[in-house]
Amino acid sequence: MSTATVPTMTARIGMVFDRTFPAGAMPDYARSVESSGLDALWVIEDCFFTAGVSLAATALAVTDRLRVGIGIVPAVARTAAMTAMEFATLADLAPGRFIGGIGHGVQDWMGQMGVRPRSPLTALDETITAVKRLLAGEQLSVAGEYVRLDRVRLDPAPSAVPPVLAGVQQERSLELAGRIADGVILVEGAGPTYVDWALDRAGRPDGFEVVTFSLLSVEADRRDACAAVAPFVAGLVRERRRALTVLPFFDEMFERVDRHGPDGLVSMPADHWREIGAVGTMDDALAHVAALEDAGVGSINVFPGPSLDVAHDQMSVAAELARR
Description:
Blueprint: E1 12-17, H1 26-35, E2 40-43, H2 52-61, E3 67-70, E4 73-74, H3 80-93, E5 98-103, H4 107-112, H5 120-135, E6 140-143, E7 148-152, E8 164-167, H6 171-180, E9 183-186, H7 192-202, E10 209-218, H8 222-238, H9 242-245, H10 250-260, H11 263-266, H12 270-274, E11 277-280, H13 282-295, E12 299-303, H14 308-322
C-alpha cells in the first residue's frame, strides 16, 4: 500500500440511473438530480437493458449544469470509431459536461452478441487508445487485433475533448487504466481501502479522476439501514467482488453470509459498513464520504435503490451529503 500523502478533495456528489429504470423516466430524473443541487448523473449501459448513449443525450438535453457520464460502454460492443463519434457528439451537445466510460463489459454478454474477445485486456487497450486519439483530432490508421482503422478522422473533432475513464475492477485492468485512461470508474462496493488499492495498481498518475458508485441507506436506526442493503451486499460477497476481497475482514463477511445469509451482515461494526457504502446513520454516511475523499475520490455517485420512488427519496439524502 502506498504511503504517499493524498490531498483531501471535496468530491462531487451525484446519482446513478439504473439499467432497470424505464427510459421514459430519464427527463424527469435528470431534472430532479439537477434541481436537488447534485453535481453529476451517471447512466448504466448493461446488455440488454437501456442504452447509455441515448440516455446520456437525453440527460444532457434537459439539464444546464449537470455532468453526465456513461458507466460504461463495452469496448467491443461498438467499433472504436463509432464510440468516438458518439462521445464527440455528446461532448459537443454540452461542452465540458460529458464523461465517457469504457470497460470490458460482461464477457458472457459479449459472447451472446458474437463479439467476445480472446483478450479483453488487449481489446480495452486498443479501444481506449484509439478513442482518445480520435477525440483529440488525430487522423488514425491502426491495424490492431481488435481495432482496425484506415485514415479515420472525426469531422469535426469535439471542441471540448471529454475525459475517457476506464470502468474496471481487477489488478491488470487497473494497471492498464493508469497508463491510457483519464481516470477510473469503481462500481458499487468500492470503499476507501479498495480505492487506495486500485490507485496503487493504477500508479497514481497525475490528474487521474476517480469516480465511485456508492450504496446509500440512511436511517435513524443503523441496523434498519444495514438490513435494507444487506441482501445486495451479500450478493457481492458471494460473487467475491474485488472491492470487498481486498478488505481485511472479508473472510469474516463471507463466513457471516455463509452461516446466516444477509442477516449475518446487519450486525457488522459501523467501520466495516463504512468500507462498503454510505450505510447507517447520516453521520455514518458522512464518514463514508469523507473517507472516500481522503482516499482521492473526486466524484461519489449514489447507486439507487430498486425503484424510481426509492431513488427519488435517496436524492434528498444525497443532496444533504452534497451540502456537507
